[in-house]
Amino acid sequence: MGDEAIQATNDDAASCKRFAIQQGYWRDPYLQFLVKAAERKAPEINRGYYVRTHGIKYLLEDFIKKTESNCQIISLGAGFDTLFWRLKDEGLLPKTYVELDFRAVTSRKCYYIKSRSQLLDPLMESCDGVKNKISIENAELHSPRYHIMTADLRDVADVESKLTEAGIDKNLPTVFISECVLVYMTVQKSSDLLKWIGDSFPTVLYINYEQVNMADRFGQVMQQNLRSRHCELHGVDACASMDTQKNRFLSVGWEGADAMDMMCVYHKLPPADIHRIERLEFLDELELLQQLFQHYCICWAYKDKANIGLSSIGFA
């Protein structure tokens, strides 16, 4: 039951993002082809997903620009994320983009891509006018730059095998992204994965969105709610504080790490953006928004053998 419950969190997150997009929080013309129209969500949830989406993209764009797109993106537990298409529209595609997730998730995503031209056609476009060859079978998708593959992230050998199959070059600057993924693994399993990444990729950035401050009363209630849905947070010990979030990287040899709760990230957004989204919906429970934002964070860590300036990536 555990893995099925974890997979269901993808549907929840995608549905929340779809509703926030419908409300005008940000533009994403692609998610509608992966997720049906969503039921109404609370304003603090919509605002939370906006800050989550844009906080991650802010750090990612800094990395892409520093590498001049001569890089790789690996999204762990990507679910129904549409980032590949959005980066393509903005001319920010990396050399290779790989998504890894459970077979039950990749199977559905591959089916939707195959059956919807709005998703498939952009994958087939190439700069020389010749259509790219796309392979979609056995719950996986392969194209010249974009791959969706099945993998058990708790099995480092499986992850390495899939990335090798996708043609990942370990010497190329690489960014890993995960959103509420590591927390479902035991601390030992996530530690093994992060150590392997740090040991294998000499120039690498990791962007992790996840729970934090989970030892207080609000955090305990969050855990109880998830447990009632058969979602056990096996890695919650790493989410006790900002320090534990950073130390999970530093303790396995990463060069540097930083973290910021989503309340702080929210205040780092451009004032015009904050003004715009605050006008979209009336929010009368500011205390609830603050509690929610203080229990999620973005942590980013790096190793920078190529000395391309990864230590300077952060929220200005």
From TrEMBL:
InterPro entries: LCMT1, Ppm1/Ppm2/Tcmp, SAM-dependent_MTases_sf. SUPFAM superfamilies: S-adenosyl-L-methionine-dependent methyltransferases. It holds the Pfam family LCM. It catalyses: [phosphatase 2A protein]-C-terminal L-leucine + S-adenosyl-L-methionine = [phosphatase 2A protein]-C-terminal L-leucine methyl ester + S-adenosyl-L-homocysteine. Signal peptide: none annotated. Its EC number is 2.1.1.233. It is an enzyme of class 2 (transferase). Keywords: Methyltransferase, S-adenosyl-L-methionine, Transferase. Belongs to the methyltransferase superfamily. LCMT family. Methylates the carboxyl group of the C-terminal leucine residue of protein phosphatase 2A catalytic subunits to form alpha-leucine ester residues. This is Leucine carboxyl methyltransferase 1. It comes from Saccoglossus kowalevskii (Acorn worm). The lineage of its organism: Eukaryota, Metazoa, Hemichordata, Enteropneusta, Harrimaniidae. The gene is LOC100376437.
